[in-house]
Amino acid sequence: MSFFARFAQNRGALIGLIILLAIIVMAILAPLVFPESPWRMVQRPFLPPMEVDGFPLGTDTMGRNVAAGLMHGAWVSLLIGLVSTLVALLIGVPLGAVAGYYGGLIDDALMRFTEFFQTIPNFALAIVLVAIMQPSVTSIVLAIALVSWPPVARLVRAEFMSLRNREYVEAARLVGQTNRTIIIRQILPNTLSPIIVLASLMVATAILLESALSFLGLGDPNVMSWGYMIGAARTVIRQAWWLSFFPGVAILLTVLALNLVGEGLDDALNPKLARERS
Amino acid sequence: MKTPLAMAIAAAALTLSTAQADEPRHGGTLNTVIQPEPPGLVLGMIQNDPTRKVAGNIYEGLLSYSTDLEPRPQLAESWEVDDDGLVWTFQLREGVTWHDGEPFTAEDVVFSADVFHRDLNPSARAVLDHIESIEADGDHTVVFTLKQPFGPFLLSFEAGTFTMVPKHLYEGTDFRDNEHNDHPIGTGPFKFENWDRGTVIELVRNDDYYVDDLPYLDGINWHVIPDGASRAVAYENGTVDVLPNGTVENFDIPRLAELDNTCMTEEGHEYFSPFAMLWMNNREGPTEDKRFRQAVMYAMDREFARDVLWNELGNVPLSSFGSNARFHHDGLDPYDHDPDRARELLDEMGYDGEEVRLLPLPYGETWTRWAEAVQQNLREVGINVRTQSTDVGGWNQRLGDWDYDLAFTFLYQYGDPALGISRTYLSTNIERGSPWNNVGGYENERVDELFNEAATAFPDEEREALYHEVQEILHEDVPVGWLMELGFPTLYRCDVKDLVTSGVGVNDGFKDAWLDR
Questions:
Q1: Please, how many CA atoms are within 13 Å of residue B330, restricted to the half-sphere of its CB?
Q2: Closest in B375, B380, B389 to A135, CB measured
Q3: How many domains does chain B contain in total?
Q4: Given A68, A235, B12, B325, which is the most exposed site by the fewest CB atoms within 10 A?
Q5: Domain hosting residue B495, numbered range
Q6: How much is the CA Rg of chain B, to the nearest whole Å?
């Protein structure tokens, strides 16, 4: 059975993939559909959805087009989700690999360091980091990455510990491959599937984190994001429900889609587990 | 014959009922909110806005001010000045007692002004610098002798600036540690009763108040409610009857104003006249160029900000002096919203797209939205703006260190240019470390000269000519962006009558207030 066929066996995953693709298309098309800045005040404020042509989702407290904000926001959310996950992987994978492969003192030291990060609540740490570095896309990406790498490190470490004494690793050692080559060329490729699954879920978490930061006013003030839209609409929720509703739905769908895709990937990459589960 | 008679009766009845409605009535305790909870209630020692609001009803000054900033008798019954504008003689009201029963005399005035405020009160010190001597002449006459004429002198006697404090309780003590600080004693229409920290401050009627019949209310309860939405709910469900300015979100005001039996007034802020400005760093970067600063003025849609963000409350200023400031010059060309003119100016100066940082004021939603609007306005004329968000500490620090390009702020005008306006433009008022002086770093010798001359010129006609010239120069130079004269809306039930009658609003407004229920 091909990879995609296995993936598609999970209906939910397929639906998730479709939603995700739709959101990606939305993000790519944003500058074409709404070439003007989403910050531009274009109509009278508090315009309800569907009332005026060209404003299917209405306007916000300052007369900015909610639909434009939503599409441009998709770009920001996806970008921050992806980049921060990549950065988290860049920190977590090497740390976990070294700890799992060498074991002993090195393992102890690295894991205590990881636990240090794990004992601080994620969100609280992210708030502190963004506040110290001043809110900007870069600082938000870094903050999210810094709070989300420990699970990656632990997962990779566990995989390495179980793989490091396999026969093919022993064989590689016998032919004189260096530790570095063994880690990168022999073991790492075999740990990829759980990493990919975890990463897809991390993108979802990162999007949620970014939204929560923006909601609290710690977003980059120069980019329109979904979390910002909800945060700004909070005070007027009794007058204008649509301002927080649509970005809220967008976040919900994106995170749901990413979780479904993650599960589908898990099924496709670990067929044995999937069969046991069903 | 019957019809005209019936009409006459009806008309008479109508006159009678209106007459009744206009007749103030005694009784009732009024509930309102105070936000945030004040750090203390001894006015003069503490200057925060919430302290002024509550304690303005306990303490009094020699004078009070109408909404046109005309001085009115308060503890002083009358006053006169000699021909040189140097010797001011105040006749005090007789028969005034402190809340503990001791008589109020000229000695209290001398002590309050010369000892208490000189020691504790920076804003009174600015006035005291111009005063040669303060002397009591008998029990009911006080003579102030000035070093040179000082135009705004008569505007300095508001309760919050020159508070009258009891000499017999404070003399010779450590003012800040005085046991009476917990139970303030003033001469005002209400007496301090109880302060349940975090819940309510209760004031009760001063039965011995020197104006017969006043006050009409039996007491005022200032409730402490920390959350904006909860304060709005407290008004909606009838827990409180008055929402002083700044207690609910701007976005909520139109909704609340439409409730039954709800009135709103914008009066009662004239003495402070808060003026929102955009600091522009005159020292470096594109903002150093006058044409760039003018372009910023043309680029901003200030009418939009007023209509949309401030719900049409407030006023778009013409120039450096607010529209109700004294000596305001109304003959200048307005900086209308004109993006094309802004682009022309930018082209002319050869602006190359250098990044300009914008620092919003971290005072809540409205200010954040406002910064977004200005950012968008500026981007539309081609200015490369980047907004930096920060907290109050960061804002203070950056302005104090001059580490900004454009920054939001708002300043009180205190009724006279020499008290509230010149401080923003005088080059002698440039000092690193404070966000409240000439932060823009504007330096113009002629402007310094004019402001200094005008502060001590006498009489007013002479001051006017000097101030008009300074406004013309400032209007051309645009040392700061003039954003808006902020509205100070007070929301209250319509059956609370005569609430806002002075230039400081509810700060001393409950003296005349009465309940029509």
A1: 6
A2: B389
A3: 3
A4: B12
A5: 4-58+188-268+488-515
A6: 25
